[in-house]
Amino acid sequence: MSAQASLHTEHDMLTALIDSVESADDAMAKATRSTVLTPRFYTTDYDAMDRLDVSSLRSEWDAMIAEYEGDNNHDHFQRDATFEQEAREGMASLSPELRQEFLDFLISSCTSEFSGCILYNEIQKRVTNPDIKALMRYMARDESRHAGFINSALRDFGLGIDLGGLKRNKSYTFFKPKYIFYATYLSEKIGYARYITIFRQLQKNPDKRFHPIFRWFERWCNDEFRHGESFALIMRAQPHLLRGLNVWWIRFFTLAVYATMFVRDHTRPLMHEAMGLDSTEYDYEVFRLTSEISAQVFPVELDIDHPVFRAGMERLLARSIAHANAKQRGGLGGLIGQAWHAAAAGLTYVRLLLLPVRRRPLPAQIRVQPVW
User: Fold this and answer.
1) In whole angstroms, what is the distance from residue 25 CA to residue 80 CA?
2) Would you call 25 exposed, middle or buried from its count of C-beta atoms within 10 A (0-12, 13-18, 19+)?
3) 282 to each of 59, 83, 271, 319, how far by Cα in Å?
4) Burial class (CB in 10 A: 0-12, 13-18, 19+), 240
5) pLDDT digits (tens, 9 = 90+) for 308-342
6) Secondary structure of residue 174 in the 3-state scheme
């Protein structure tokens, strides 16, 4: 089978993982739904957040806060005169299948950015610690801009999300602060890696930029990078979070973020193809970049080139497809199928979690610059 034929066969298998979006109600329903693969909304222990102490890294912390105050992206998220026309022309040129993949990307991205906005804003309202309060206010500001900018692109096609309604109606998951730190650090850094990889690809191949939103990705992803830096400083200032059994939580969340990205991205093979990217190669490039960056704070690195790791990622994808197809079938057989494939995916995940990792010393210089 040719690579092109294989790609489209894979896409046909994955259609059960993407719900069609034809109206604003469909977009809202997709954003509100909470599954293993969709962005979640979080709450946490606000009293514990209030007790955080970053005084051991005061100079680094104050320098970072000064960058937030400088707000070098205050004028970035403004649509230029050609945005809407480029968007309409680009979307009109897409096949129905590619259009659905891109809309899925926009809705997922908008929900993810808004999730950060809600969490950070809620923390800043509930704490009195001046360091944490200031940080969360600035990060909520950034994420609000990101979510609003994506939502304006959705509104061009009558698919805008009611963010107020989303805040009220989407379910929330409680995470301890340390889980927030691990997961959100990774989400911000992998967000940077994803956006900068796409931006560099389309910078070299502007003919493949089918929507103008990609022109904003470079400065946009630097916001994501700085957010990750903030959590790196918090974790380095609480060194117990990086030792002992907590290293297993770091491994758990790193694997969870990578696996979720791998499965989710393989539901969009046509979108990556349109940009001149292969979904698998793109994902592993993002994993490598994220691993390189996270050496600033995480004492372990997953061996993403281990053959068992790569085979496990493929098995998780296959189980996700099978689970979605079983759910679509319905009935008793469908329920049994869902349970079977979920259990098989869980066993695969445990095996990947137990793979040997690379140990690495934490550097004296904590902050990293977004030079990729």
Assistant:
1) 28
2) exposed
3) 37, 27, 12, 21
4) exposed
5) 999 999 999 999 999 888 888 888 888 898 899 99
6) strand
Instruction: Give yes or no for residue 147 having a pLDDT over 80.
Output: yes
Please, what are the domains in the chain?
Answer: 3-36+45-306 (1.10.620.20)
- Select from 303, 289, 288, 293 the least CA-distant residue to 357: 303
SS3 label, residue 301: strand
Is residue 18 scored above 90 in pLDDT? no
Which residue has 């009611």 as its token pair? 162
Closest among 223, 297, 295, 303 to 258, alpha carbons compared: 303
Q: Which amino acid type is present at position 98?
A: L
Question: What is the amino acid identity at position 208?
Answer: K
The whole-model pTM stands at: 0.91
* H-assigned helices in the chain: 3-14, 24-32, 46-50, 58-70, 83-92, 96-126, 130-155, 163-169, 177-204, 217-237, 246-265, 269-274, 279-293, 307-329, 331-353
In this structure, are residues 2 and 8 in contact, taking their beta carbons and an 8 Å threshold? no
